[in-house]
Structure formats: C-alpha cells, structure tokens
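Email to the structure team, subject: N-acetyltransferase model.

Hi all, the expression group asked for a predicted structure before they design truncation constructs. Nothing fancy, just the tokens so they can compare against earlier work. One-line instruction: predict N-acetyltransferase, return tokens.
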Amino acid sequence: MQAASKQSYSAFGRKIFMDLMLKTRMRDHVQLFWERTQDEEIKRLFPFSIESMEQAFILFEESLKEDASSYGKVIYFEGRYVGDIWCYGIDESNEKMAMLSAVIFEKALWGKGIATVAVKVFLKEVFNKYDIEKIGAFTYSNNHGSIGLLEKTGFEKIETFVEDGIESIYFEIQDAG
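Reply from the structure team: attached below.
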C-alpha cells in the first residue's frame, strides 16, 4: 500500500518534493533491517530490544496475527528500502495508546526530512486504524536527530530518565482527531 509518493511537504518553512512510500513489511525486510541495524553507530543511537534475527522473525510473525499489538510499515525513498516505522504495545482497551519507533538505517539519508515525512504520514494512519488517544516514543538523550524528529512531528517531552545507565527522554503526542 502506498501512503505517500512524490507529494509536496512543508519542511523547514519551504516546500519539498519527496518520493516517499510506506509499504507493507515483508519477511525479506525483517532480515535486511536486522543486518543494516547491526552497525555500531545505529546501535549506539537507537534503543533496540531485539537480540537476534530469529527473535526479529518471531516478532514479525506475531505482528501478522489479527490481534497483534504491533503494526509497522517499511519506508521506501526514491524506490529504495531505507528504514522501518512501527507502533508496538498497542492498547485500545485500557491506556488507549501505543509506542512509536522509526529508524532510517541508510545513514547518508539522515537529516534529509525523510523520517519526518514518514512519521507524519504513519501517525495519521495509526490514529485512524486504532482506537487510541496518544502515542509515546523513547529516545536516548544523545540522539539529537530523533529528538528533533519527535519535536518537529508534534511530540512533547514528558520526562527524562536513566535506564541501564543511559539517559533517555520520553515523548508523547495526542490524537488531534
């Protein structure tokens, strides 16, 4: 499914045109994502909890079930697979929220606005698809790119905390409905 393609977006006060698509995540994407995110710089900036490719495949299979608590897409830019975006911990009953994660593993594309556009498109889709009122996101305090991304897409800083010796920040966005 194509979520956005060659459309204009406002970024940094000017219009930009971006060949960006959010597509259905397939098994091949899981393997490539795992391989590309084993880069030391990426591992230092993003709080991954998956410890093996086998675990990644198991979680992918779980996400395909009708009652799955996660939902994701892959990000294509100019026809190339460059990252993933997903929500996990989707809770439509009690807290009415989910958690967001987005990773562009093509480091040459960092800072180009690709993740910003992908997050904006994905947030609309998730708020329409699920009965939730807010989405949270964590990032490490030293990941200035992710902090900027979350702030540009409307997330508000809720708290700073230390976990496993690493300072992190928790953000939330409310459904503008």
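The radius of gyration is 16 Å. Residues 7-174 form a domain with the Aminopeptidase fold (CATH 3.40.630.30). Ping us if the truncation boundaries need rechecking.
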